Amino acid sequence: MSYKHKKVITIGIVSELTGLSERQIRYYEERRLIEPERTRGGTRKFSFTDVEKLVEIANQMEDGLQTAEIRRLEQKAQQQKDAKVRDQMIRGQLNAAFPNRNKS
């Protein structure tokens, strides 16, 4: 796992890095725009990827988007990414099953 995806940053540090208040960060979590992990004690832990995502969310909010719109855009982007991965996997399976099909 890349260091960018490890959930090790507390909400206070995330607040300092992003300029968002802890309240805003918790609100984005409530709206399911961000999903921090929780320690046994309930402390939120974020990754650098989460920090980047929060900055993007803040920029979208400043541009006038609502949280529901941001979530919809994110879901659409994820669906497109999933479709691309699925297509690559199918192509790989076809190439493995028919290794000479692209050769002239």
Automatic annotation (TrEMBL):
Superkingdom assignment: Bacteria
Coiled-coil regions, chain positions: none
InterPro entries found in the cross-reference section: DNA-bd_dom_put_sf (IPR009061), MerR-type_HTH_dom (IPR000551), MerR_fam (IPR047057)
A single GO molecular function term of this UniProt record: DNA binding
Ranges annotated as spanning the membrane: none
Keyword annotations of the record: DNA-binding, Repressor, Transcription, Transcription regulation
Lineage: Bacteria, Bacillati, Bacillota, Bacilli, Bacillales
This protein's name: HTH-type transcriptional regulator TnrA
Gene3D superfamilies xrefs: 1.10.1660.10
